[in-house]
Amino acid sequence: MGSKIAIVVASLLVSLLPLGCADSGSVGQDPSPMPASLAGLAEAHGRRFGTAVVHDALFDTTQPELARRYTTTLAREFNLLVPESELKMANVWTAESTLDLRKADRIAAWAVAHNVKMRAHSLVWYRSVPPWLVAGYRRGDYSREQVAALVQWYISRVMTHYKASYPGLVVAWDVVNEAIGPNDPTTSDTFGLRPVGTDFQDSGADFWRLTLGDDYVEKAFHWARAADPDAHLFYNDDHAEFPNPKGEAIYTFVTALKAAGTPIDGIGLECHLDVSYLDMSLPGIVFTPEAISATVDRWIRTGLEVQVTEADISMKVGQDDRQAKLYADLLRASLPKAGVTAFTTWGFTDLVSWRAASTPLYFDRDIAPKPAYHALLEALRTWDGK
Ligand code: G3I
Question: What is the 67 CA–ligand 1 centroid distance (Å)?
């Protein structure tokens, strides 16, 4: 760790692509006939409506017309964004003493230029472990204590960089992501910390639990708090937004963290859903709008700040109306409630999605609005705050 530290910091170049209306906060206060936007309506209620963004789509120079539509829609509809993968550890920490923040910084600079806030995702995640660190640990180059010191250094450098270079930009840090396994609550009844190992690609094993110990989640939160006392520190996971065995395990885990004095401020409910969940009938799983609403209420009662962080809803051809209704139901079950501060979706166009084949978003591949977009707008217009 004594080696010279070279941080590759981005030039603060902002996209030269043509931009749309950047003032997404004027709806609700401005009587001029501006079309409503998701951000405008959410902001009128003091909330954020966000999306994941992909650097290579935002700054795509090979398809200028599509990039223009992507960028103008982003600027018009959102007051929060999250880099989909550009801030993940394996993408940033390229060698022991080198951080490559160029892509994340270009996104951050775009956000600042467009008066949009940012979620930072994510510091510690079993699926994003730098290959050089795994290889070094396997070779015996690093002890567990040395891995811990390195991770603490990493958290501190990244958080300090954003605090110093983009003050006020980051409204939430996903400190630890998806520590509870497995991903699918219908396939196993073993919910707890993921198993230890160095082979997450094959088995979903958790390198951090192996090297940092069973208390790695607590450690990460303490390191994050030390790096930035003012940051909003989140635990983020899937399947915590409706009653199911994994969600129950996450609730038990997170409330125990909080009770033990871990500096955790918020819970991120990913909400990667599927229209087919509405037809599911499995023991211990209740997937209805009412059950989602009650689960959100339960999280609010913990005193944690609650955010929907990665919503998308897979569908089959012809299910646009069911998808639209589920989006609106999910929004109504969460964002209007005191204690829920943001509703973020995992992208906005079916063109740029980790599961594009199931068209889970509310703008189509040409970035034209789908029924789900209009349903979300309507849910924001008919706001029923509690
Ligand atoms: O960058 C390469 C690119 O050069 C290459 O052409 C392409 C070909 O496959 O692969 C690209 O990398 C992929 C990257 O997405 C960008 O598309 C990675 O292989 C792939 O692993 C990566 O997947 C991302 C995944 O997290 C792992 O980081 C998904 O896009 C992203 O949506 C997904 O996001 C996660 C959240 O972080 C946590 N919650 C679940 C969510 C969905 O899995």
Answer: 20
- Count CA atoms within 13 Å of residue 48 on its CB side: 23
**Dihedral angle computed from the Cα positions of residues 148, 149, 155 and 158, in that order, rounded to the nearest 10 degrees:** -140
Q: Give tens-digit pLDDT for 95-138.
A: 999 999 999 999 999 999 999 999 999 999 999 999 999 999 99
Tens digits of per-residue pLDDT, 232-266? 999 999 999 999 999 999 999 999 999 999 999 99
Alpha-carbon dihedral angle through residues 68, 70, 72, 73, given to the nearest 10 degrees: 150
Q: Nearest residue CA, atom 4 of ligand 1? A: 56
Task: Identify residue 84 by its one-letter amino acid code.
Answer: E
Q: Closest residue (by CA) to atom 43 of ligand 1?
A: 354
Which residue has the CA at smallest separation from atom 16 of ligand 1? 85
Q: How far apart are CA 100 and CA 257, in angstroms?
A: 32
3-class secondary structure for 170-209?
A: EEEEEEEECCEECCCCCCCCCCEECCECCCHHHHCCEHHH
Residues flanking ligand 1, CB < 6 Å: 84-85, 88, 127, 177, 270, 310, 354
Q: Report residue 346 as tokens.
A: 């995992």
Residue nearest to atom 17 of ligand 1 (CA): 354
